[in-house]
Specification:
Blueprint lengths: L1 H62 L6 H8 L7 E6 L2 E5 L3 H4 L12 E6 L9 E6 L6 E7 L1 H8 L9 E6 L2 E4 L10 E5 L4 E6 L2 H49 L2 E10 L4 E12 L3 E3 L1 H10 L3 H16 L8 E7 L1 H4 L4 H14 L2 E8 L6 H11 L4 E7 L6 H6 L4 E4 L1 H4 L9 H14 L2 E4 L5 H9 L4 E2 L10 H7 L4
Parallel strand pairs: 11-13, 13-14, 14-15, 15-16, 16-17, 17-18
Antiparallel strand pairs: 1-2, 1-5, 3-4, 4-5, 6-7, 6-9, 8-9, 10-11, 10-18, 11-12
Helix pairs in contact: 1-5, 7-9
Length: about 500
């Protein structure tokens, strides 16, 4: 039941977290889209307004171009019914005007001489606060200037703005006074566009229906994206989680002593026991037996080699401490090159040598060749050999050790990897390599230990070429400490 609850939580998190972020991104993108469209909408309307404002200014200028002939001005104004009233002044005096011009506008306007263009003034005839008119002023020429008055309604009819389902809240300001859409002037306008030439500003806010439709579109589009992200996350977790959990399992296994050692006998050409190699094994409480081919690379990849090496030495001392060998044997323990440079080297070797001296056992450090030997490691190898500890280069031929490095390292054994031993009697490209390694060991004057010997043909081939020691299933399988104790002579 607990496992099922964990699965439910896992899938809920896997679905909800990407969905939350996808929807959030979708809402953000919808806002950007709405803002972008609002800006485009404002620019489009501003271009329309500027064109119409320019035409309106030109029309008023033409209509009032002959201030001395009021009858001509009157006939011209009848052509534009949206212009309510007009006036022409010279040096502050009225030359020509419609009957109701000053019913709309205060007389002080004629003495101000405003800039040419569109302006907003308070409606004198309206008792409603904030009711304004549009006044178009012409250019002043020789003291003569014309004015035309449009009410808000007339201005709106002149503009003839096409309705938009996307932008129901549209406000047009003239001189900071709302001339269109006054009911929205007190609302926050999403975007505004200004025209400095005509003193016009446009504010546009998208309609609720457009906002909801756009948000719904992006949110619905984000759901398949969230599901795709969840699916990808699931596969990535399935791929990487076992590796991460395996590293954690290794750490827990070391704490719980799930790892144990088996000891594979090493025989000389005379078929006499020469020593053992300590091999780590793992009995996982749930996965059962885990092959070293799985957990050893993981230990190296996750930088757990030092922790694991320390554990192996502790188990070696624990296994061998109570025993007393009747004959001196050597015991090989695999160590990474980094162990040779660690601060724990001296203390670990001291504890191990003290235990080995009591049981008539000598120590061999099998330096794994999968990692590169550096100068510091070479110096420490020389130092430990002076303590009577033998050194072997393990798995030679499959790692990083170069021939030049071998000439500088002082060691006692060269261990040939099983992959080369398997080439005996087989037509393989690695077959000549085996004889080259054997010849190299003889030239370096070091003993050879062949690993993975499983056939008599292999054993005879190696012995004939001077390999001093062999280990493999042909001679003996790895043994538990109890089997070693029962089969060999101990006191």
């Amino acid at each position: 039941m607990k496992r099922n609850k964990q699965d439910v939580v896992y899938y809920l998190v896997l679905l909800c977290v990407p969905l939350f972020f996808s929807v959030a991104v979708g809402l953000y993108l919808s806002k950007l889209t709405i803002d972008h469209h609002a800006e485009d909408f404002g620019n489009f309307y501003m271009q329309t307004l500027e064109r119409k404002a320019e035409v309106l200014s030109v029309q008023v200028g033409v209509a009032l171009s002959e201030p001395a002939r009021c009858d001509v001005i009157l006939s011209r104004m009848e052509m534009w019914p949206y212009i309510n009233d007009y006036a022409v002044t010279k040096d502050g005096k009225v030359l020509c005007q419609s009957n109701h011009f000053f019913d709309w506008i205060d007389e002080t306007l004629v003495g101000i001489t405003p800039l040419a263009g569109l302006h907003s003034y308070r409606n004198q005839s309206s008792m409603e606060a904030g009711e304004n008119l549009l006044v178009i002023a012409t250019e002043e020429v020789a003291g003569v200037q014309g004015f035309a008055v449009l009410t808000k309604k007339a201005f709106h009819e002149y503009l003839d703005l096409a309705p938009s389902s996307r932008y129901s809240k549209l406000t047009i300001w003239i001189d900071d006074t709302p001339m269109v859409g006054k009911r929205h002037a007190d609302q926050v306008i999403g975007h505004s566009v200004d025209s400095e030439e005509h003193h016009i500003s446009i504010g546009a806010s998208p309609s609720d229906s457009y906002v909801h439709a756009t948000m719904a579109m992006f949110v619905l589009s984000s759901i398949p994206v969230a599901l795709l992200i969840s699916l990808m996350a699931h596969f990535l977790l399935r791929y990487f989680a076992p590796r991460l959990s395996l590293a954690d399992d290794i750490k827990r296994g070391l704490d719980r002593k799930e790892f144990y050692l088996q000891y594979q006998p090493i025989y000389g050409n005379d078929n006499k026991l020469h020593g053992f190699e300590a091999l780590a094994r793992w009995q996982h409480p749930h996965m059962g037996y885990v092959s070293p081919e799985i957990f050893i690379p993981e230990i190296e990849n996750q930088q757990l080699s030092m922790l694991f090496t320390r554990y192996v030495f502790e188990r070696v001392v624990e296994d061998m401490g109570p025993l007393k060998l009747a004959k001196p044997y050597h015991l090989g323990v695999n160590v990474p090159p980094s162990f040779m440079c660690s601060d724990e080297l001296d203390a670990t070797l001291k504890t191990t040598l003290e235990a080995f001296q009591r049981v008539n056992l000598s120590l061999t450090l099998e330096v794994t060749e999968r990692q590169l030997l550096n100068e510091e490691a070479i110096r420490h190898i020389d130092a430990v050999r002076q303590l009577g500890i033998r050194v072997a280069i393990d798995d030679f031929g499959v790692g990083h050790t170069s021939l030049s490095m071998l000439q500088r390292v002082h060691f006692d054994y060269l261990k040939i990897d099983k992959c080369f031993v398997d080439t005996v009697g087989v037509d393989s490209i690695n077959a000549p390599v085996l004889e080259s390694i054997i010849e190299l060991a003889h030239r370096l004057n070091v003993d050879i230990v062949a690993e993975g010997v499983e056939k008599i043909e292999q054993s005879s081939f190696l012995a004939a070429r001077g390999c001093q020691f062999q280990q493999g299933y042909l001679h003996d399988r790895p043994l538990s400490i109890e089997a070693v104790s029962s089969r060999f002579v101990f006191g």
